[in-house]
Fold this sequence. Notes:
474 residues; alpha+beta; five-stranded antiparallel sheet; 29% helix
Amino acid sequence: xxxxxxxxxxxxxxxxxxxxxxxxxxxxxxxxxxxxxxxxxxxxxxxxxxxxxxxxxxxxxxxxxxxxxxxxxxxxxxxxxxxxxxxxxxxxxxxxxxxxxxxxxxxxxxxxxxxxxxxxxxxxxxxxxxxxxxxxxxxxxxxxxxxxxxxxxxxxxxxxxxxxxxxxxxxxxxxxxxxxxxxxxxxxxxxxxxxxxxxxxxxxxxxxxxxxxxxxxxxxxxxxxxxxxxxxxxxxxxxxxxxxxxxxxxxxxxxxxxxxxxxxxxxxxxxxxxxxxxxxxxxxxxxxxxxxxxxxxxxxxxxxxxxxxxxxxxxxxxxxxxxxxxxxxxxxxxxxxxxxxxxxxxxxxxxxxxxxxxxxxxxxxxxxxxxxxxxxxxxxxxxxxxxxxxxxxxxxxxxxxxxxxxxxxxxxxxxxxxxxxxxxxxxxxxxxxxxxxxxxxxxxxxxxxxxxxxxxxxxxxxxxxxxxxxxxxx
Length: 474
């Protein structure tokens, strides 16, 4: 769904669109109101959608290279969209040339079943479906509807991160079209600086046209969504979460804990995952013994990923934000509960207001698989744990209100962590880039890596071509 009003075509940019059409061999160019144009620019959050002069669908790396050369020569604003799940306006949208990668939809399993090529135009749903017959999987997105490209270029927290690290720790190589229109294959051996930069550095170094990933064996899994409706049970659920945090050492087990508010209703939701057809009887028993709605069962990995009802925010505006902590203490979980109750009382007067605060209790060893990269995630006894904050709403007139409120909520959660003596090393924030609000500073995303990243970008993109598109810029 698109709400922004179409304001017409920029004739100069249209000429560039026509040049792209004429000079590429396998690309298609669309204009408003062609249905392909509307599909190309559509985003998960309507506030992230902008009407460009044209949308372009390249199908080969060679065509992307030609497009990049035309953009570089004409200094035209552009966007690159994979799955369209970014909640930051302008990160994958533009009023200029919109490059939609949806025709890069390959999933290629190599003969040894150890590696997989994945196109940047896919959703993780598509990837998991394609890999099912091979009984293998990759480290990818946790909910339905998330795109391969942004997720992987931003870091990539997964249901398999306790076992294998983040998505960026499972990258073998990238096929990349550089800012000057050259096609290169980037590995740690061929271009170590760019390989480092692409692991969390988004679109600062060009356009990725293929990801080569490590593959891992995949059986059926055990899991599902449990929803706790009765506020009187919340404290018992949170005690069970603390016990799970303290006692679980099994890397196959994971949980996400979300406080959710929508249209006057607050729920505490647990998404529970075990990476095998059955789980040890005791591992989730404390959760299932508390009255709830929903179930956990044996299912395919794709079926499990689809259990979180992300459709509830379809057609709404929205923003994400995040805070990083080192310990999901009882005090901090209580703050998430209190923030939800506090905001729910304020938001009930707003049309279709939705909020979700999600804690992610990974094992303390989950950064041990780190392969480095732009996003700092070095092995540590107290690795960072992202708290995901999502606000959604209906009306453009409410944008400023909710953007301010999500900042205030993040600040309150951070202050609660700072006040909690069991949370160490949170004074200097490293916020997960895929969750971070667009106003987040580079230092809060990349820490001590910022100078190196800026140096790499300066050497790689001397004409600042990638600054013609949106995102966090080095």
